[in-house]
Fold this protein.
Amino acid sequence: MTSNHSLTKMKLFNPEFPNKSTGIINGETSGLLNWNDIAYPQMYTLYQTLLSNFWKAQEINMQDDIKQWDQLSPTEKDVFLRINTQLASLDSLQTPTMNQVMDYVTDSSFKAIFAVISQQEAVHNESYSYILSSLVPLHEQKERFNQAKDDPIVRKRNQLILNAYEGFREQPTPENLFKLAINSINLEGIYFYAGFAFFYNLARQQKMLKTSTMISYIQRDEMQHAYFIAQFVRILLSENPELNTDENKEYVYHAIGQAVELEKEWAHYILKDIDGIDLKEFEEYVEYLANKRLRQLGFQNLYKERDNPMPWIHVFSDEMMNDTKSDFFEQKSRTYTKVSQSNGFDEL
């Protein structure tokens, strides 16, 4: 059973091994990446798609939002700053975690994609700082970051992710890599959505539109990261059948179910005084997203099958911004992942 054994930390260069990796973990590879000779050719398309999303926070002129900031209510301002720093704190964890995973993944094409994801998470983290620096002075920014560190509900929520990430850091086994990947999907595919809903709710009132544009760029990236990690998990399980245990299947449902409950708790805490967001509707939306994540992983729904109960969010989705992005994923989910039509990449 290799699932309890350590992962091999790859040497940089193994000239006696083939360039095309023999496995995504504990395989053999020279370490040289020839994109025309990789084990999973569809990863090149995914790499290109991630690159085509490249953006920088400074491309978005915050002047309109700066003018509107003082028109927000004290509650809206408080929630805006709390969510902004809380999202930044989660993204801070992703860059070093994705970098660490790269050390233990054999396949160079996957290493390259993890590198792009790591870089994009650094951009997301910086973009929250950019928004803050446009709106409030440095001392308030610092206070808000400390608030995100100390808030008990935020800490409880982040602990689910941290336990899995630190578990892998302390003991890099295939089992712990699997758990890290599931919680990365929780972070990118479930945890950000109460925050996103808040910014999109402002946008539909024509408030803080530049911020919501930046949030929609971040969301487009996060959707694709969650999709890639789901593919990574499926390949991990197919190449390492000893990981395909009932306990691990149970872990997926339990971890995603926990993330859903924590996101609901966070939404009730942070959005309770915000007009325009129905919290019962939001709870169903998080369940709807969790079902999407599970289907991307090749699992059954955990919650009742339903359409998106918050269709107004769709207006701000990447499909509305750029049709070609969603076409790629819908096509991939039909061909490569061989999952049902209902698992098209239409999760908003």
Q: What stands out?
A: The two ends are 40 Å apart (CA to CA). Residues 42-343 form a domain with the Ribonucleotide Reductase, subunit A fold (CATH 1.10.620.20). The first helix runs from residue 42 to 52.
